[in-house]
Amino acid sequence: MLSRTDRDRGTSTPRQSSTSLAAPFPSTPPLPMSGPSAAVSIATISGSTSSNASTPPTTTAVSTNTTIRFRTGIRNTVYDAMRDRGWKETDGDMDWDFFWADVHWIHETFDHVYLQEHQRINHFRNHYELTRKDLLVKNVKRMIKTIEKEYGKTESQKFDFLSPSYVLPGEHALFTEEFKRNPGSVWIMKPVGKAQGKGIFLINKISQINGWRKDVKGNVRGDRDGEDGPEAYIVQRYIENPLLIGGKKFDIRIYVLVTSYYPLTVYIHRNGFCRFSNTQFSMQAKDISNLYIHATNVAIQKHSPNYLSGRGCKWLLRNLKLYLTTRHGTDAVNELFTEMEASVVRSLMSVQKVMINDKHCFELYGYDILIDQNLKPWLLEVNASPSLTAETQFDYDLKHSMVQDCFDVVDLERRHTGKPIRARVGGFDLVYNDGPIRHERTSNYASYLGCYQPIPRAPRQKKRFGPNGKSTVPSTPNRKSTSSPVISISVQNAAVGVSVVPDAASPR
Fold this sequence. Notes:
Elements: H1 4-9, E1 69-72, H2 77-84, E2 88-89, E3 98-100, H3 103-108, E4 120-121, H4 128-131, H5 133-151, H6 153-156, E5 165-168, H7 172-181, E6 187-191, E7 201-203, E8 233-237, E9 244-245, E10 248-261, E11 264-269, E12 273-276, H8 291-294, H9 298-301, E13 314-316, H10 317-328, H11 330-351, E14 363-371, E15 377-383, H12 393-410, E16 424-425, E17 428-433, E18 485-492, E19 495-502
Parallel strand pairs: 1-2, 1-3, 3-4
Antiparallel strand pairs: 5-8, 6-7, 6-8, 9-10, 10-11, 10-12, 10-14, 11-17, 12-13, 14-15, 16-17, 18-19
């Protein structure tokens, strides 16, 4: 007899996925992740590759309501997208079909409620195994050890997408030894459970983090006399050679949708974007503390004296891809974007065994990736609640379209129940379904990430919400989709500019 929690998950014990590390290798040698010809190598350690992979049809109970009832506490693009689908908001505790919940509700309440067959929610129970910085590092390190033991060092090196990292105060001694081997190196300190750049700072001296040092008895300052100890931090080797455009640092936001961990089912959206700093990059000692140089988070950059609120600080990912292609060539850029996609999937494989799968859950993650001057991608962090508040009208249109695509994949309206899994839904491409997806477009696989995807105008203007959560800007009548606007790139006098222009017809 299943427990209440097991019934809620829809299974008595987690099913062993076919992507188990114990599975044998394919009969053909795995392709290396070193170029666009690296077709299905995202799972060289998985033992399975699936072409046009599909999930057996299933029949689920359908809500008796003709209109989806949703619950949420947010008032941003997601709220607008749900209303634009004709869904109706409800404030009932459990009288809903879909709940866009915050992570606090997941942590405090989810384990104490029973979900009916048709109800869906936007987080997995222990999403923090992926989205807490310290747990992500722990799970990836464990995966590397497992891969090296089972398949050798060459295979384990494919999981080298995190900068060297240590959790403080627990690993202060290990970090000290590493720091002594590289004196004068720069490291970045990040709180393990915060986002939007809160609490981060750079160091280049070990004395700058004495507050996390343990004494000879293993105690940390604050552990004694009932005082609170230091906040848990992760310290990572700072990437001192980031790829620059216009002399400024940027990172990339990618939207990743996971609909299941058993089997692991992953979609990646084509329309990500780049976030730029507004100050010239510098590694001089006097600039170490300047977060306007080193942090690309919009929450930080919008306070920069160089920030232009009407233009924002973002570029469409597709335009970055075109820009890099003109400077580094198609092969190098395809290799880079394929490796970014592979890093996403490998990070999810690293947490698959510890993640609590639940048929009621899906999750939209925001992956932050930095590219260095050697065109190597580094995973910075994974956000469980990526910001979906827009800076500009074009930013609003992009996020509105992406969220609508997300809901189309999740299919709460049950339009595709019982049908084979879809390889593409709007801008979301299925990249992994119990094994990597081999696209038929080409024998030499290159990621669809950053490929052309129209961005229709949202049926309302970007909103600015007041203290009471109500819009201060009236909605506009529905507008037909126009030619997809894109963010143009201009690098003049080492200044990054962003503007919206119509996009010419472009092949995928």
